[in-house]
Amino acid sequence: MKPILIIQNCAIESGGTILDYFNQKAISYQVFHSHTNAEFPDVENFEAVICLGCPHSVATNMEHAYLRSLYSYVTNIVRENKPYLGICFGSQILAKVLGASVAPNKVKEIGTYKMTLTQDGKQDALFDGISEKFFAFHWHGDTFQIPFGAIHLATSEDCKNQAFRKNRAYGIQFHFEADINEVPKWCDAYAEELAKFGKTKDEIISSYQEKFESVKADNFQLLENFLKTIR
Known about the structure:
- The structure is a single chain.
- This protein is an alpha/beta fold.
- The protein has one domain (4-230): Rossmann fold (3-Layer(aba) Sandwich).
- 35% of the residues lie in helices and 26% in strands.
- The protein is built from 7 helices and 9 strands.
- The protein has helices at residues 17-24, 65-80, 89-97, 119-123, 183-189, 191-197, 201-230; strands at 4-8, 29-33, 48-51, 84-87, 102-117, 133-144, 151-156, 163-166, 169-172.
- The chain has a 9-stranded mixed β-sheet.
- Strand 1 (4-8), helix 1 and strand 2 form a beta-alpha-beta unit.
- The longest helix is centred in the C-terminal third of the chain and has 30 residues, at 201-230.
- The protein starts with a strand and ends with a helix.
């Protein structure tokens, strides 16, 4: 199998426990730092693509050269029907490429939230072995509409659209991959946003710490499922 490409769109939002899983399973991967404005690698050299989060809004992606390039890159992935897993921003840019709108959610989701699989989500291969109700970490203000022809897979109380699939491309709004050791860095980097949200760094960290091992286990299961869909 060819390597998996992991697109990292800002310095502090790494692949987290995705890297743990790939290293444990000796799965070949390459991390590409799009935010450095480097030239994107040839997508044909990879088995699948995982696109991570970004502090910018998809609504303003045309204001940033590397995000314009990323939009074109994801467009090509969709055109070629290459397996794709978009996380948070990665899901939003996929939705936009597929013609759906991305706009501010009614409230921000920052912290650990309970998720619920839809009926289709419970039957989708990506969530095989994951409970109907599960926890995940979030840090987003925008939300996507479900693209035309896509299947709605997961929801939450404060954000209806949490995951979808269109052909071989998946978008998930939440951060299964967030490493508990990196969350404090997010809190520091986005301290102003966190203060406006009305939560403290300690609250965010402690609530996630309680759920981290189960979230990590779910992330490993999801990655195993994703790899099965492309083999």
